[in-house]
Amino acid sequence: MAKRSFPLSKVYGLLEPGPVVMVTTASGGRSNIMTMSWHTMIEFEPPLVGCVISNRNYSFGLLKATKECVINIPTMEIAEKVVDCGNTSGAKIDKFETFCLTPKPASQVGAPLIEECYANLECRVADTKMVAEYCLFVLEVIKAWIDPTVKTPRTLHHLGKGNFMVAGEKIKLKSKMK
Amino acid sequence: MAKRSFPLSKVYGLLEPGPVVMVTTASGGRSNIMTMSWHTMIEFEPPLVGCVISNRNYSFGLLKATKECVINIPTMEIAEKVVDCGNTSGAKIDKFETFCLTPKPASQVGAPLIEECYANLECRVADTKMVAEYCLFVLEVIKAWIDPTVKTPRTLHHLGKGNFMVAGEKIKLKSKMK
Asked: CA-CA distance, A17 to B113, in Å (whole number)?
């Protein structure tokens, strides 16, 4: 299954609905995966994303050092792997190997894409001013990929303590909103 | 229908899934409603929320002046009103009146609760350091209310241009995550 390049101007539509994402980082031959729900769009284009990555997480150090990551958007099909990645630390295990996820080279950054995710957003850290106080990184999405065969992605939305809401029906309302 | 006080420690579970919210503000006898999808949790407790409110919005001035707002979480039942509030400006109309929404006094802040929303989070602005550059406010939730009769809220999740995903089924996975 070949992913297609996805316009940066449309990235907000992938992140606005609040899906659980998997952030990948890599440094010195080691890569990691972190499950994350604390993110928001900050700007449409170039797409800026604010995300909170705790300094207790192994990914924090990798992201700070390399200033690069990939935001991967998983769906229901791999829900257990999403939770497994959230419950373990990259300081102890190789999550790609342990949970049978497939790393694929990104085009612009050193961190890998997760093949099993329907969308992948290659990011560079754009601002670290809020990292010391809130662990809040501002990321710029510099390249986006999407699986064109996935029309209604069953994204996961965390409700706390392992409870998730799965993306339901789509509705269309008359709107002037972007 | 009487809303119940909701523990601040559980607020993250309401915002993490990424629902469209309606932010209310009030100043000098005028109140306003703004539809918003750009928010993220920043800290569990006290609950801190980062949210982007453009300086082109009428609510930006009200929030900057009063440093208080309410994050109201609507559901499918009032989807059209949510979009209507997003498509109009409080500089020109009274949205409560125009769209038949009911303002109720909050307990801690001057901004009103929207009665028709199943959850209401009274907030104070905690940090404005990122406002000049990104219009990103850090809010602290100081009081939360929930309608105890709503067990599976059909929250709205914006996909762009008036397309919404409605919250679907719930699943529970074994997790150590908060």
From this structure: 23
